[in-house]
Amino acid sequence: MPDGMNEFLWFALGVFSYRIVTGILQYGQLAVLFEEQLYHMLKILDILSEDLDNALKMKYSIMKDMNTSDEEIKDIREIDKESFKIWREMTISRIITHWPRLYKKLLQFNNWREAMNYARNSKKKVVAK
User: Fold this and answer.
1) Are 119 and 43 in contact (CB under 8 A)?
2) Structure confidence by residue, pLDDT tens digits, 69-120
3) pLDDT(67) > 70
4) What pLDDT does residue 126 have?
5) From CA 86, how far away is CA 107, in angstroms rounded?
6) Nearest one of 35, 50, 37 to 88, comparing CA atoms
7) What is the C-alpha separation between 10 and 18, in angstroms, rounded?
8) Sequential DSSP letters for 12-70
């Protein structure tokens, strides 16, 4: 082997190893960041859902105070309930659709109920860190 070739090979191997190790560490750090952000997004959606539910209850109360018929309130309540359900599912669907492909494994839910269960279980992990 020519002089210096052995040292060059060790240098190249070191550079290659460094790139692999830093890439793995960066992936791990980003996975933790994405998991934490996912938890916070789902928590915000849960809070928004509760607020919207309270706003709808106030709406029905005001409608009753304005002497709206019970039948009309019931019809509107059914429409709102279905719209609310669609909003929840569409929101989760959009998160799943737009989530970075590399980190799709972090998404352990397919619908609203599973997402809220995931958020509740994730809270235990986030708090434990």
Assistant:
1) yes
2) 999 999 999 999 999 999 999 999 999 999 999 889 889 999 999 999 999 8
3) yes
4) 55
5) 20
6) 50
7) 12
8) HHHHHHHHHHHHHHHHHHHHHHHHHHHHHHHHHHHHHHHHHHHHHHHHHHHHHHTT--H
